[in-house]
């Protein structure tokens, strides 16, 4: 969604505005195309998605990722004064909060299951 926001914000931008925003190197390689990358230009890679096979470790990892995403949205909100963009970012931020809570609930369920007595 963030990449879509960037495309929408830059679709009618002229080259002079791109230069002024110090986005010349990005434009030279990609024009205004969507290119999933972090703020320093590192491309998205599947290595960002990790799984250990241990549901407790994976749920903690998922919860940490949600907290990191929330922090990114909070920082992005500070970087714009566009009201519509802020609304979209607030929605995404709230979604991260809900995801964090749901992963926490799942973690409690797994921990309760692991601590329960099983009779076979």
Protein architecture, described:
The structure is a single chain. This protein has 120 residues and is mainly alpha-helical. It has 2 domains: 1-49, no CATH class; 50-115. It has helices at residues 2-10, 15-20, 24-30, 55-78, 83-115. The radius of gyration is 19 Å and the shape is elongated. The protein starts with a helix and ends in a 5-residue tail after the last helix.
First-last Cα distance: 48 Å
Instruction: Output mean pLDDT.
Output: 88
Percent helix range: 55-70%
Low-confidence stretches: none
Structural class: mainly alpha
List the defining traits of the structure above.
elongated, 2 domains, 120 residues, mainly alpha
Summarize the structure.
This protein has helices spanning 2-10, 15-20, 24-30, 55-78, 83-115.
Secondary-structure map:
Elements: H1 2-10, H2 15-20, H3 24-30, H4 55-78, H5 83-115
């Amino acid at each position: 969604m963030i990449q879509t926001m960037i495309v929408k914000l830059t679709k009618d931008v002229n080259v002079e505005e791109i230069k002024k925003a110090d986005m010349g190197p990005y434009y030279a390689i990609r024009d205004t195309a969507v290119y999933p990358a972090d703020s320093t230009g590192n491309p998205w890679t599947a290595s960002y998605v990790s799984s250990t096979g241990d549901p407790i470790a994976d749920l903690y990892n998922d919860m940490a990722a949600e907290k990191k995403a929330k922090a990114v949205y909070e920082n992005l909100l500070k970087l714009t004064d566009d009201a519509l963009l802020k609304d979209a970012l607030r929605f995404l931020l709230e979604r991260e909060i809900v995801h964090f809570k749901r992963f926490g609930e799942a973690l409690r369920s797994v921990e309760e299951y692991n601590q329960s007595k099983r009779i076979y």
